[in-house]
Amino acid sequence: MGEKDKDYESMVADHHWITGSEALLRSLLAEGTECVFGYPGGNVLYIYDAMVKYPEFKHILTRHEQGAIHAADGYARSTGKVGVCVATSGPGATNLVTGISTAYMDSVPLVIITGNVATTVMGTDAFQEADIISMTMPITKHSYLVRDANELPRIVHEAFHIASTGRKGPVLLDIPKDISNQKVHYRQTHELRLRGYHAVPDQNPTEVDKLIQAIAKSEKPVIIAGGGVVYSDASEELREFVHKTNIPVASTLLGLGGFPSAHDLWLGMAGHHGTYAANMAIQNADLILSVGSRFDDRVTMKTDGFAPHAKLIAHIDIDPAELGKNIQTDIAIVGDIKNVLEYANKRALPAQSEDWLRTLQEYKSRYPLRYTDSETELKPQFVIEMLNETTNGQAIITTDVGQHQMWVAQFYRFNHARSLITSGGSGTMGFGFPSAIGAQIGNPDRLVISINGDGGMQMCAQELAICAIHQIPVKIVVINNQVLGMVRQQQEIIYDGRYSQIDLAGSPDFVKLAEAYGVKGLRARTKTEASHVWKEALETKGPVLVEFVVSKYENVYPMVLSGTTLDQLIMGEYE
């Protein structure tokens, strides 16, 4: 017997051979995976069987695959780490598609593991077979169909690297059932075989220097701070840059918290439901600097009327494909926001913006966000203000999508990055509550509040079971106006009050629903009740659902209609 044969026999005798499923779990642990969210099924059962041998491998069994991926998303956004989820083949995998799209649109690092049918029957329309790689190719950063379990350590390592570098995003691993049971000799690897993948392009200092000189000559500059500031952990660098250049900041929805709302030079959120000061600043600026914002249509609105007085538009982004895509750019800087600002801060010069800042301060003073309060009915804006005041703006807030999302963006004061978890690009209803579960798992010592509408809450209410079973202390807020609020508002304003299919009056009693799952439920209909039940919720150690029954006819203002420019705001309470 030769030496190689002896080594082989020795490995077998010492039980060094493990299954592909065990290799997968070991590889995930080697990448620092703290928790995986998932739902089992036939073609991932070898993976779930392997979990029995690895008690250190933490898995949360959600009640729907979409809940699993949104939880992984919330974990990733709130921690900056890679979120991981698992689902079986066929419907299990396709139930992840909405969550993959949500993460892709907002550049969230996820590793998504799906099972598939055995390689011997792939392509035969076998039971629960789905070509999930082809289905998700447009909404993943990269995909792997694993054909050899020996490759799993390398593939997992590459997947985490791709998901978490450059412009972050979801990476899919599709593992056939026979591959998950294939016997392999596990070897941890740090190898990366990624020809053509350059996570962060080389920075061009010449363009940054051009920007600095342009700022020094500018009299009316504005920074649009986007999600890239948050994702690159560049909040401190942006604050230093603003201090040195004296440029005011308007935030995008995903950029909220990347620059502190308490800062004198913060103008508020820009765009569709942006503040008067932020939108008018953009429309009258002579220099626009987008920092990690992709000039999304909800920020620019009518593009051919965007920033008409800007003599120069500059854009800093890690993804070169975004530069000049939506708005013509004069200075295009490709690079990681943190690195670019670190370089810029060494050379930064102040803008000639003293008169401009006085004008913008007047805008802020004359047109603050406001609403007509009431002593007889509960207003949703009051609820958000109450949440902000009682938490001193220090909570992690997750939202669903709709009017409540915009009221949170307007009335909750975010002063720290990764404090707002919300679906921006996709606008995914059902995202808010599961993402809060992931955020709480990733931040066990932080207060996490999930703010939902009565519509979105019913798309994910089954995940209440997770909070009850694991005593995940999320405070779940339901802003209940008995209607699809944002749709109703658009039908009122754009469709001349022709209301169609928006009545949610047949929704369940949310307090009873919470109690049915074993979660404490509370309700408020007045300001006094709101203060009382919210205080009780904060004093309760475990999860609590609080339903705030609010006015049905409240609208989100300001509002810029599609097809109009940022300065054509409908001001609501001011008109």
Automatic annotation (TrEMBL):
CDD domains, A to Z: TPP_AHAS, TPP_PYR_POX_like
User: PANTHER family attached here?
Assistant: ACETOLACTATE SYNTHASE CATALYTIC SUBUNIT, MITOCHONDRIAL, THIAMINE PYROPHOSPHATE ENZYMES
Membership in a protein family: Belongs to the TPP enzyme family.
Gene Ontology cellular component list: acetolactate synthase complex
**Pfam families, per the entry:** TPP_enzyme_C, TPP_enzyme_M, TPP_enzyme_N
GO annotation, biological process:
isoleucine biosynthetic process; L-valine biosynthetic process
Can the keyword Flavoprotein be found in this entry's annotation? yes
Question: What one GO molecular function would you report for this record?
Answer: magnesium ion binding
What are the residue boundaries of the Thiamine pyrophosphate enzyme N-terminal TPP-binding domain, all occurrences included?
Answer: 19-135
Which cofactor(s) does the record list?
Answer: thiamine diphosphate; Mg(2+)
Task: Name the chain's protein.
Answer: Acetolactate synthase
Domain Thiamine pyrophosphate enzyme central: residue ranges: 208-342
For this chain's record, the cofactor binding note is:
Binds 1 thiamine pyrophosphate per subunit. Binds 1 Mg(2+) ion per subunit.
Q: Which reaction does it catalyse?
A: 2 pyruvate + H(+) = (2S)-2-acetolactate + CO2
So what EC number does this one have? 2.2.1.6
Please name the source species.
Paenibacillus lautus (Bacillus lautus)
Q: Which UniProt keywords apply?
A: Amino-acid biosynthesis, Branched-chain amino acid biosynthesis, FAD, Flavoprotein, Magnesium, Metal-binding, Thiamine pyrophosphate, Transferase
Domain Thiamine pyrophosphate enzyme TPP-binding spans what residues?
400-548
The metabolic or biological pathway listed in the UniProt record of this protein is:
Amino-acid biosynthesis; L-isoleucine biosynthesis; L-isoleucine from 2-oxobutanoate: step 1/4; Amino-acid biosynthesis; L-valine biosynthesis; L-valine from pyruvate: step 1/4
